[in-house]
Amino acid sequence: KQSDVFLQNFRHGTADRLGIGYQALKEINPRIIYCSISGYGSSGPYRDRPGQDLIVQGYSGSMFSVGATGDDPTPSALWGADVMTGYQAVIGILAAVESRHQTGVGQHVEVDMLSVVMDCQLQEIVTYLNAGPMPRRLEERSAHGSIPAPYGVYKTKDAWLTLAMVPLPILGEILNDDWLKTLSDYNDGHKYRNQVYKKIRNAFLDKTTQEWIEIGDRAGAWCGPVYNYEQLMNDRHIRETKYIVEQPQYRGGSAKTVRPPIKMDQTPPTVQRGAPALGEHTEEILNNLLGMDPETISQLITSGSVARVRE
User: Which CATH code is given to the segment(s) 5-130?
Assistant: First the structure.
């Protein structure tokens, strides 16, 4: 009755069976903003299937966007489907809140993981749908099968380097390669990708990553190092801008975590507490939010219907 937003990520139909579907809560509170997160949405033949990051990556076509010809399908190591779906849910909820300011009523917001991962591939899918042909992996391993050379990850004398953007004639100046100097940026970058990649791979082995970054910076090339987590945490920029913060833990102590990515000058977000222990807020929610008396709460805990943190 008093909540602004209700969020659930059960499989399709489960919330209705539990009596907490949108229509049921809407009758209690017409201003409620109800957000449903699922793998594949509330309609269509896949609506009852389980949605999980790896499975959705497989459905979405993204596993064939990277790698070389003959490679197995390659999933991303990032939990992109999970994380980006959460972001889209927040955007939808905030839009519904703004709508409620104007209309006085809430609404049902739906976000599904497959739609989100397809949206993340908007450039690739739209290009395929409108211009074709099917994006192809290359003989030379690249960072992305649809983006022209020199976009990729390259081994250097001591480590690895990412190179996202530099005009091919300028790359020719950097590598002292007359053929590269004659190429145009976009069309030739697609047409001669394998040849360009081979030239870069051979040349980049002669210098260290830091040497190439300094050369690239002077030439206006967009490039950077490839870190593992230890190298990332030791990076000067990460340390000086305080990407890592301490968060308090249940029962005292603290743990390190990544700070919120959003900065605000008037109301800066902070990490105020760590992840809750299982059942840490059960009694608080049941009593303060739902108005249950201590006896009812005790019965629910004793029956195993809800969990309470173990002291």
Answer: 3.40.50.10540
Query: CA–CA separation, 139 vs 129, rounded Å?
Result: 24
Rounded distance between C-alpha atoms, residue 23 and residue 189, angstroms:
54
CB 250 within 8 A of CB 277: yes
pLDDT of amino acid 311: 66
- Considering the segment(s) 152-226 as one domain, its CATH architecture is 2-Layer Sandwich (3.30)
**3 state DSSP class of 111:** strand
State the first-to-last Cα distance of the chain, in angstroms, to the nearest integer. 32
Residues of the chain with pLDDT under 50: none
Extents of the domains making up the chain? 5-130, 152-226, 227-275, 277-311
Cβ proximity of 153 and 171 under 8 Å: no
- pLDDT computed for residue 73 by the predictor: 84
pLDDT at site 143: 66
Q: Are 35 and 10 in contact (CB under 8 A)?
A: no
